[in-house]
Amino acid sequence: MDLSTPDSNRHAGPRISCRVRIVGKIRGFTEQENELSGRDSKQWVTVCRPKESHSDSSGKVTISFGNEGSSRKDVYELDNCYQQDEDNAVVFSKEVTPLISEVLSGRNASIIAYGARGSGKTHTIQGSVDKQGLAALAIAEILSQTKDAKKAVFVSFYEVFQDHIYDLLDPNHPEVQVLEDSQGKIKLKGLSKAAVDSISHFHDLSACWSAPRYSVQKTPLQMPKRSHKGLMVHIASTDDIQGSKCPNVMNFVDLAGYEDSRRSSKDGITLTESTRINKSLYAIMNVVYALNTNEKRVPYREGKLTRMLQESLGGSNHVVLLTCLNPILCQDTLYVVSLASRSCQSAGPILTSSAMKSKKHTNQQVRLMGTPLSGKKNNSACKLTGRKLFSERKATISKQDDVTSATKFKPFSENASTITSSFHKKTSQDKSNSDSSGALILSAENEIPSAFKETVSCKNMEKDASPPNKAKDLEVTPEVHCDIKETISFPDDGTVGVEKKNEHVNIDKVGSPPLSARLREITNNLRLLEASTPLHILMPKQSDASQGSLESCDNIEPKTPKTETGERTLEIVKYTSPWERFHTRSSGVKNCLVQEYLNFLNTASKDELTRIQGIGEKRATYILELREESPEPFKRLEDLQEVGLSAKEVNGLMRRMAGQLFN
Ligand SMILES: Nc1ncnc2c1ncn2[C@@H]1O[C@H](COP(=O)(O)OP(=O)(O)OP(=O)(O)O)[C@@H](O)[C@H]1O
């Protein structure tokens, strides 16, 4: 597959601006992938560039995912994207060379490779046996430019694993500490620097990036499976033989690969480890987002790596976030690119049906008449992750004119996606909308990204997808072979509307039917609910005077329904004494309070979370991140240990909370 077209090389080069530049890089096929699928396999990633003549001078590109003919049509915007056939040398000349001049004239710069596992980050930053990485190419250039400029070049290599920083040049060193001096400048205590005078010397030193490591007792250490690795290039004046007088720094960071932590990892990484790694990736992405949106507070303290790099990020420094993309179907790549795209705020990401469907693409909780739009069984809300993924900005597909791909499919027109600010806050009971067209408008009440409207189509709704009578308020009467067009709108006031019209026109032949899937799920949920509802309650026999009296009714406690012999009954519990009743019921109250508290942690906004004693800004942020990882991270009180609270602290917290009820 030849991805290049004359247009694909039409890079204007990076604008030297202080916002973080978000650039994509599609990895080349590995030999194995070549063997398995062949070069003429269907393309999964397509880069669309605006035409030169187009009024949009931002030069941004859109990346779409999905084979021609497939239903997946995720489209995201980045500052630029390098194709499979554009190797490290091309990326270096376009992205890194301009930054070297900046560093030599007094600024700091960082090139951060971010992506799913196996997306080519290491290949890009560290290089391989036969291809130099960006780091080595930069060192060669820096050495050549500083030769006659009375500058000395020092390097530091480090690894960040589970929020601990290790010096790779001197593995005997204890952990590197990130300290702040009296002027608020970051100091890295314990990170060694080595002077570099030639590229071969650099290659020798860089072996520590992948060399096996040993403990102080000389026993081999288990290498972390997923960690961040970095190089700091310090450019100091020649009289600074230690390179310690605040030299300018160029960072190269090969981030740990993103992997959905709910998937069991192939290499035995535990859920907690994986969550921590992803948390540190979110920390980077949150800093990038905050820098690009000029937020007052940049959350450097959210992660060790961000704290460590703080001096090189923001201000007049330059950062390139190189988002590495797998060239074959990879859910994690979609997620990564969606997060990267959200930081390209100047035009906002363009999102389409599959992005909408994916629970990963916004952190908003969307409820459809109290029933999940999609998502897991028994989950009352479908949680979509990716903070601020939907920006307030508008984007229209018509901006995209030129498709740089071998297959040249037109995702926009086929997808019929539009962004609108129109607002629909109506319910299905609103007769004016349930008109002859059969329009159906559903509403949800949670905070919803603004200005997003999407049109998708579904076809052939099956009979079994029809909701039972209990779902009458949805007013859906699915027909076999009916053609349905639905419009989902996200208005500004935080509600979502789903309009649906019976239309026998313009069926998207490749579009999946999201509404039908959702309705099927609603149906299934209702059936489950119906199945678990007791048909009748067996009351105590009248002959038993003690149980039959009105007085003793207060002594009975309904328990979970049992369905042993097919007959659904409600078990009746009789208390033998007021003490027993009081004891049992107060533990019930306690469990209820715990459950309410966990529900609160699973759903509350950041502001609400910080109202709870013991939850500060940082912990609230982490809770939100955990919720991005899993829709309901807190199922038991023990789960609170995940946010750094000890069992004792959790107990204290609950005791205080119970005490507050009487204040
Ligand atoms: N441009 C490329 N052309 C061909 N093969 C590549 C290219 N980039 C990477 N590869 C191959 O893809 C595989 C994964 O690459 P790499 O190790 O760089 O990914 P990674 O993102 O660093 O992975 P991880 O997240 O696990 O560290 C390797 O076998 C590498 O040789």
UniProtKB/TrEMBL annotation:
Keywords: ATP-binding, Microtubule, Motor protein, Nucleotide-binding. Transmembrane segments: none annotated. GO terms for molecular function: ATP binding; microtubule binding; microtubule motor activity. Residues 546-565 are annotated as: Disordered. One of its GO terms (biological process) is spindle elongation. It comes from the Eukaryota. Residues 19-346 form the Kinesin motor domain. InterPro entries: Kinesin-like_fam, Kinesin_motor_dom, Kinesin_motor_dom_sf, P-loop_NTPase, RuvA_2-like. ATP binds at residues 115-122. Residues 556-565 have a biased composition (Basic and acidic residues). One of its GO terms (cellular component) is microtubule. Coiled coil: none annotated. Pfam families: HHH_3, Kinesin. Belongs to the TRAFAC class myosin-kinesin ATPase superfamily. Kinesin family. KIN-10 subfamily. PANTHER family: CHROMOSOME-ASSOCIATED KINESIN KIF4A-RELATED, KINESIN-LIKE PROTEIN. This is Kinesin motor domain-containing protein. It comes from Anisodus acutangulus. The lineage of its organism: Eukaryota, Viridiplantae, Streptophyta, Embryophyta, Tracheophyta.
